[in-house]
Specification:
- It is a single chain.
- 41% of the residues lie in helices and 16% in strands.
- By secondary structure, it is of the alpha/beta class.
- The chain folds into 2 domains: 251 residues, Rossmann fold (3-Layer(aba) Sandwich); 164 residues, Rossmann fold (3-Layer(aba) Sandwich), CATH 3.40.50.
- The strands form 4 sheets. It has a 7-stranded mixed beta sheet, with helices on both faces. A 4-stranded parallel beta sheet has the order 8-7-6-9, sandwiched between helices. Strands 2-3 form a two-stranded antiparallel sheet.
- β12 and β13 form a beta hairpin.
- The protein starts with 8 loop residues before the first strand and ends in an 11-residue tail after the last helix.
- The protein binds pyridoxal-5'-phosphate.
- Pyridoxal-5'-phosphate binds next to α6, α12 and α16.
- The site of pyridoxal-5'-phosphate has 20 residues, from α6, α12 and α16.
């Protein structure tokens, strides 16, 4: 089909929503390292995990071999409320940049939660409900995950307790009210309502919190309350599995027009949107069928891939969660308070960590003022007000498109536009007032976080 026939938005039909998720791990020769029990140093068994997570989700977490997993009909039906999400050809951005590159973005912000997180929230809530649980607990940083999960829990009639990173709780009161409107109980973290929260507050009085702290609190509440389990919105294999719906739709839409991307770009916090977006493309790459450049973009202030260590580490600050082998800055790492753009987690998906380690993808880090410059430029020509997280991907997509302008190459660039930024106006205000600064941690700062890495057999201290 002729290039100029490609519409601004490529929509799929309802019937083209995938009916199976794709499990990238099935095609990996080097599987992601197993989660370890922090007490014994041994791989976590399904039985041990089922005290924290729902049973079906434990199965998905441990399944490294089944390539396709059925999406239950109820979840497919929920997806129909806001999916398929559009794949947009960024004609306006291309023109503004004067680039011969062809730019596409998959827009996941078309639902009330404003991000891709709803794709996994509904799945996790569904399995919790199916197991007969009363409710779930979770943490939320910027608030998108908590919002998505509160929507899913409201839909299914599940109770939800959210621990929200204190700095976000204070900066984003409206995000909190959205969650409460959907019936969630929201507590700023660290809090005095949990043992681990009290301990963290005693050690770091006045801390504005971190995702790692909030995870510790949410897990404690889940394991001490009968009928509750803990759910996590990123990092885990099961979350990447659910998010594969993004990549499957993207690929189906591109295939309709015979378009093959050269470069695929996504922002990386815990790795769920990126893992989902790249899944089917990475599958082809792993099977030796195709090659793509795949780029993870992270904030310079929280650079797990680009400056972290590939090592076993705790997923939480309280050090009560399982150990995961991942690129990490250390569970004690707390990003600078002036960091506004989300993506604050100290670690990274074990699946993406292994793929990065094995050379299947690249990573780069960007500073927040340049991220907001990209966000502003994008908003003005493409109309959508992007989330700061998503804008990390925009930054690098624009940079790659500008390189094409220099070389005259007509590369096809696809990036994940994970969400909208309506609740990030404090950050946008700082940027607009010229008050946004960049903070790049020094090697000394990072050494402090990395000194907290646990001692695991076979891992040098
Ligand atoms: C949570 C979030 C991210 C980062 O999380 P990943 O698990 O790395 O995808 C990115 N963008 C938006 C809009 C988010 O809400």
């Amino acid at each position: 089909m002729a290039e100029n026939k490609i519409p601004y938005k490529i929509y799929l039909n309802e019937s083209e929503i995938p009916s199976k998720w794709y499990n990238l791990r099935a095609d990996m020769k080097n599987k992601p390292a197993p989660l370890l029990n922090p007490g014994t140093g041994q791989p976590l068994t399904a039985e041990e995990m089922s005290g924290i997570f729902c049973e079906e989700l434990v199965k998905q977490e441990l399944d490294d071999t089944t390539p396709f997993i059925d999406i239950p009909q109820e979840i497919q039906d929920f997806y129909k409320m806001y999916r398929p999400s559009p794949l947009v050809r960024a004609y306006c951005l291309e023109e503004a940049l004067g680039t011969p590159a062809k730019i596409y973005y998959k827009f996941e912000g078309n639902n009330t939660s404003g991000s891709h997180k709803l794709n996994s929230a509904i799945a996790q809530a569904y399995y919790a409900k199916k197991q007969g649980l009363k409710g779930v607990t979770t943490e939320t940083g910027a608030g998108q995950w908590g919002t998505a999960l509160s929507m899913a829990c409201a839909y299914l009639g599940l109770d939800l307790k959210v621990f929200m990173v204190k700095v976000s709780y204070e900066q984003k009161p409206f995000r909190r009210e959205v969650m409460r409107t959907y019936g969630a109980q929201v507590t700023p973290s660290p809090s005095m309502t949990t043992e681990v929260g009290k301990k963290i507050l005693a050690e770091h009085p006045g801390t504005t919190g971190s995702l790692g702290c909030a995870i510790s609190e949410a897990v404690e509440v889940a394991v001490t309350n009968p009928g509750y389990r803990y759910v996590l919105g990123s990092v885990l294999n099961q979350v990447l599995l659910h998010q594969s719906v993004i990549g499957l739709e993207t690929k189906a839409a591109l295939d309709k027009y015979g378009v093959e991307p050269d470069i695929i770009i996504g922002c990386a916090g815990g790795g769920s949107n990126l893992g989902g977006l790249i899944a089917p493309f990475m599958g082809e790459k792993l099977r030796g069928e195709k090659d793509y450049r795949i780029i993870a973009v992270e904030p310079a202030s929280c650079p797990s891939f680009t400056r972290g260590k590939f090592a076993y580490d705790f997923c939480d600050t309280g050090m009560i969660c399982p150990l995961a082998k991942m690129y990490t800055l250390g569970s004690g790492f707390i990003p600078s308070a002036n960091h506004a753009g989300g993506l604050r987690f100290h670690g990274m998906s074990t699946t993406l960590s292994q793929l990065y380690h094995d050379g299947y993808m690249e990573a780069t880090s960007v500073e927040q003022t340049s991220v907001f410059e990209a966000a502003q430029q994008f908003a003005r020509v493409e109309g959508i007000l992007p989330a700061p997280e998503s804008s990390h991907a925009i930054r690098v997509a624009i940079d790659e498109a500008l390189k094409c302008k220099e070389t005259g190459e007509e590369k096809t660039i696809v990036f994940g536009l994970t969400g909208t930024g309506y609740f990030d106006m404090v950050a946008y205000q700082k940027f607009n007032d010229g008050e946004m600064t960049d903070y790049i941690p020094t090697d000394e700062d990072l050494a402090k976080g990395l000194s907290s890495l646990p001692k695991v057999p076979g891992q040098d201290a």
